[in-house]
Amino acid sequence: MQKSLTIATRKSPLALWQAYHVRDRLEAMHPDLTVELLEMTTQGDERLDVSLQKIGGKGVFVKELETALYDGRADLAVHSLKDVPMELPEGLELCCFTARETPFDAVVTRDGLAPWANFDAIPEGAHLGTSSLRRMAQIRALRPDLKLSPVRGNLGTRLRKLDSGEFDGLVLAAAGLHRLDMAHRIAFETAPEDVLPACGQGILGIEIRSSDKETRECVMPLQDTVGARAGRCERALNRHLNGGCQVPIAAYAIERDDSLWLRALVGSADCGTLLCAEGLGSLDDPEALGVSVAEDLVAQGARELLAQAGL
Predict the structure, then answer these.
(1) I want to staple 233 with a disulfide (CB 3.0 to 4.6 A). Which of 80, 121, 181, 253 is the partner?
(2) 24, 32, 75, 83: which one is catalytic?
(3) Alpha carbon of residue 133 to chain centroid
(4) Largest CA distance in the chain
(5) pLDDT tens digits, one per residue of 65-77
């Protein structure tokens, strides 16, 4: 068993929380193990004035961390699974998926405004900020009267923009607010019937060098069977659609009656068009279910819809 490990992580508060969470669990399971953090600033963190699509999508948040794995400065990287590209560089792999925090989105109102109870309670023409084309597509289909604008930055930066009056509300991943003890800012969490989450949302993925058997042995006790099934199913759907992590694709897999139930959609962020599909599959082959539901979306014109969006 290894005596020390180094985790590559971004410096944002949420990324550090995730890395420290994994560090503490590893050290608790392996009392003789010392885990250190290699804190890094990525291109996605630095270029806040440019949309993610223009600088490579959410993959820009992981490239520098993967370089640290390649050159040996780090043994593992901890990611929000929803931010990890569908295709990993040769020699690297996601070996471990943690238990899922809430996968849903949260609507946060500006400080001083009465919290909204649901989408119906949002005033007509209210201005919402979100970084996600997936959210934009679904909210436009649900409430076409709302004004939607992109917003970049870490969680604290976005909340400061909200409270300064740039927006009436924000739509964020609820998991990050829970993890940073900011759940009190949540007006309401979205229901999957209204807004399906991103592929892998709420799950942490641990990336290692494929050849590093000792690190794999150390981290695999963190694997959660339910989280792994859902994450692999949802990512298989996204991969089959040639999607990424900054596209209007949503997927949500849960276990039901000894089967895996996957709901998914592809949307148009500019006009609110949604293509929806769902299916049941075996718990033993989550990837097959992801591909099957993706094929249903393809038959409805999903690839053409994504192509029209330039994605």
Answers:
(1) 253
(2) 83
(3) 13
(4) 59
(5) 999 999 999 999 9
Closest C-alpha among 93, 161, 177 to residue 127:
161
**Mean pLDDT, range 121-137, rounded to an integer:** 94
Task: Say how far apart CA 275 and CA 267 lie, in whole Å.
Answer: 6
DSSP 127: E
Q: Where are the alpha helices (DSSP H) in the chain?
A: 13-29, 43-46, 63-70, 133-142, 155-161, 174-179, 213-219, 225-240, 286-300, 302-308
DSSP string, 198-221: PTTTT-EEEEEETT-HHHHHHHGG
Are the CB atoms for 141 and 273 separated by under 8 Å?
yes
Tokens of residue 204, six digits: 């942490």
CA–CA distance, 74 with 71 (Å, rounded to integer): 8
Query: What 3 state SS string does 263-311 have?
Result: EEEEECCCCCCEEEEEEEECCCCHHHHHHHHHHHHHHHCHHHHHHHCCC
Report the predicted TM-score, pTM, of the whole model to 2 decimal places: 0.91
A 10 A CB-CB count for 226 gives 16
Say if CB 99 and CB 179 are below 8 A apart. no
Domains, the chain, ordered by start = 1-98+203-223 (3.40.190.10), 105-189 (3.40.190.10), 224-303 (3.30.160.40)
Q: Is 92 helix (H, G, I), strand (E, B) or coil?
A: strand
The two structure tokens encoding residue 152: 């970049």
